[in-house]
Design brief:
The protein is of the alpha/beta class. The chain has a five-stranded mixed sheet, covered by helices on one side. Helix 1 packs antiparallel against helix 4. InterPro entries: Cation_efflux, Cation_efflux_CTD, Cation_efflux_CTD_sf, Cation_efflux_TM, Cation_efflux_TMD_sf, CDF/SLC30A.
Amino acid sequence: MGHNQSHAQGAHSHDGGAPESSDKKRVLIAAVLTGGFMVAEVAGGLLTGSLALLADAGHMLTDAIALALAWYAFHLGDKPPTGRHTYGYGRVKTLVAYTNGLAIFLVAIWICYEAWQRFQAPPPVLGGPMLVVAVLGLLVNIASFLILHGGSRESLNMRGAILHVMGDLLGSLAAIVAALVIMATGWMPIDPILSVLVAVLILSTAWSLMRAAAHVLLEGTPAGLDRDIIAQDLQTSIKGIHEIHHMHLWSIDGAANMATLHARLMDGLDAHVAVDAIKHRLLTRHGITHATVEIDFDRRAEDGRRRDEVRGVSSQPRHLH
């Protein structure tokens, strides 16, 4: 029986290369912009009496925290694996995403509650100042979006940050529309109505975020991979493999995909050659950067019987490196 673990070159790089360093700076700048204007938007919402502004400020608060945690995840990603954390700190980004999703749910529920209260007795809203604050918020969100848009498209951390800022953009647009309607018609209910729309946007984003994070935390099969298809591909593309079984696919952080599997070989196939071929196929065809391959020489090995009962095979396992 053979055992092999492989890391694709660069799959767990901690050299703090230029692209990741640039993404880290972009996320930090966006976090400072979002957090700074969030304070101004809270003040504007309290001054004008606009729930739409407060709702957008709540969204910006969660996004500022999300961006700050995304920056911290990049920071932790620079650290190498340790004896206690042998996979490194890649899963911190997943934990951050799940926590952000829970926080967004709480903010959205609060917005819906406030909107219901205001439907009962709509308070006066100062349309002019509300419009000024909302437009400034839109400009800040556009700046943050452009900063993040220049970052890596491959980083899930960056893509999540961009999605947060896009949500803020829509929230600012909703506040602008509410301000214009109030100034033109004096119809105050538009403010809580659009606030609820922002809350629905937040809830849908939070749900998607939490589902994706939970799938990774539960070590579900990464999107775009199919265990049975990959097993069949290995069996048909590599000569001498009798069967692929006990295959498990998962991801540490939603980006780096991993696999463990057992391969039963036909007589005459060298185990080292088979392991190298399997690793190469998993990496180049399916994007799996880390693989653990267990070689079975006889079906009885899977039944837990004594290995020394298998004729011609040593009773001690061999480790292939």
